[in-house]
Amino acid sequence: MKGKRKLVGRFWTYVFAYLLAIIMLAPLMWMIVSAFKAPGSTVTLLSKLFTPPFTLESFQKVLMPGETAMMGRWTFNSLFVAIVQTVITVIVSSLAAYAVSRIPFKGKKFITALFLIGLMIPFESIVVPLFDMIVELNWTNTFNALIWPGMNLSLAYFILKQFIDQIPNDLFEAAKLDGACTFKMWWTVVLPLSRSSMAAVGIFTFVQSWNNLLWPMLVAQETRMMTLPVGIPTFQSTFSTDLAVPMASNVLASIPAIIVFLIFQRHIIKGISMTGIK
Amino acid sequence: MVQISLTKGKKVTNMVFEKKRKVNNYLTAFLFLLPFLIVYLWFWIYPIISGFFISFTTGSFGVDSNFAGLENFKTMISDDKFWSALINTLYFILISTPTIVMLGLIFALIVNSKLKGTVFLRSAYFIPYMLSISVIASIWKFMLQNETGLFAEIFKQLGSSLKISWLGSWGMGWLSILIVTIWWTVGFNMILFLAGLQEISDELYEAADMDGANAWEKFRYITLPSLRGVTFLVVLFQIIASFKLFGQTYLITNGGPGIATTPIVHYIYQIAFRQWDMGYASAVSFVLLLIIAVISIIQYKVMSKN
């Protein structure tokens, strides 16, 4: 009797779970299917949505050179900015975390307090003075403006420091006996051991950077300097009722993020859990 | 190590060596911290300080500004749009926090209940979070538009005369933004809860099974109490994220109708980059900074206690 009730409960959990999955995926399915319709198709093609003809014309229209969309260039900008920000964040934070964790010096409390500020204060509340700084530096529409501000160094620092703190001291002593200098110990002990947490921090940084809208929108006003999140709405604003071409641009813009997700799924999930445990 | 034992007994040499090592340590530590410090001080700390000073001036970007005393803060107190933006933000926190936190927990419980296809389910729930807000907003605008949106079209084709103005009013506008935000970010909260769920030891559940507890009792007396820390964290995360709300309103409702769906960051954007009033925008930014800093400090205090 109890076993049967359990089985029924299990059945409804399955129904509920997969129903939720369908609801979560439906908007994406709709985006993908619509993108394969001819340019000029509108929302009203609902009943013919899942039946042929399917075509690549909308994608061609998005990718056509001389079009207002510079999908290739925007994808490059987004990738470039995200990769550079990720590499800088991970390396710079790892070096700092290693120094505070392993080198004896006074003033660590001060350093910790200083770095905590970056954790407490949201980037959104400093965009106005930052933008003023960028204007003064004459950096608008440059990669410098896209890359340097807005990296969440503090978060990366605290996550990485937690891991470096846990590395057994013996390993450093052994490296020291081999004659390793401080930098070499970072390279041969810290880097290999904290690889998985660095990967998690890195992927997390990459995703944040890839999806950033507010800051790149402010500093990249020229079409060729835009990132995907900035370019996409600009491009789409010229289509009022056409569904297919905007959806094709959405699909193209999402492909890199989805590939990253499929490859690094485990790291992404670990990265998020770590920001939580912090 | 070897060197120290060689100088053993020679106290003076030892002290000199000690001192030298100390100086050396400072120098190495400084060198390792230097790249971090340059970027961090330049692009985080300096803007915080300069923002504080800019909020006492009037002027625009890249031009000389004039000292204005407390003028900007006085303006803020009597600015209906500022209060409206603040109230809008608080309203969004009020409706988004319980819904997104609860849904995040439900999603996590499903993914954690060892169903077949768990990886697929987890990916399906999480994948919207990977997409850029621009793509999310574009999809949902096509769904929500009055008259020409997908939902309107579905109602029409079903022969219903029902017309929902998804973006046409304060209430519906915020409901739409809530739905989009849930769809976009619920996966993030799910992962946080999932991490919490996986830390609960199986032994607790086994012991409860022995005592003949049913599923609800196990949830009520084991799962929920064990998740208290994570829940607190997710709630604060959600509140902070809601204070930073921008992309959804900027791209979907454009803050409208009127200023009905303009939250605080969106309002800062309008003052700074539509009216080019840098001083006033900095003053409003500073209020936002203080609010979030206070919440973060509470979060930090509670978390370091655990």
TrEMBL record, chain A:
GO biological process assignments: transmembrane transport
ABC transmembrane type-1 domain location: 75-264
Membrane-topology annotation of the record: Multi-pass membrane protein
GO cellular component: plasma membrane
Presence of the UniProt keyword Oxidoreductase in the record: no
Keywords of the record: Cell membrane, Membrane, Transmembrane, Transmembrane helix, Transport
Family membership noted in the UniProt record: Belongs to the binding-protein-dependent transport system permease family.
Protein name, entry field: Binding-protein-dependent transporter inner membrane component
TrEMBL record, chain B:
GO biological processes: transmembrane transport
Subcellular location: Cell membrane
GO CC annotations on file: plasma membrane
Annotated CDD domains: TM_PBP2 (cd06261)
Alphabetized Pfam families for the sequence: BPD_transp_1
Keywords: Cell membrane, Membrane, Transmembrane, Transmembrane helix, Transport
Domain of life: Bacteria
Transmembrane segments: 25-45, 90-111, 123-143, 172-195, 227-246, 280-300
Membrane topology, as annotated: Multi-pass membrane protein
SUPFAM superfamilies linked to this entry: MetI-like (SSF161098)
Every ABC transmembrane type-1 domain range: 86-299
Gene3D superfamilies (alphabetical): MetI-like
Protein family membership: Belongs to the binding-protein-dependent transport system permease family.
Record's protein name: Binding-protein-dependent transporter inner membrane component
Organism (species): Caldibacillus thermoamylovorans
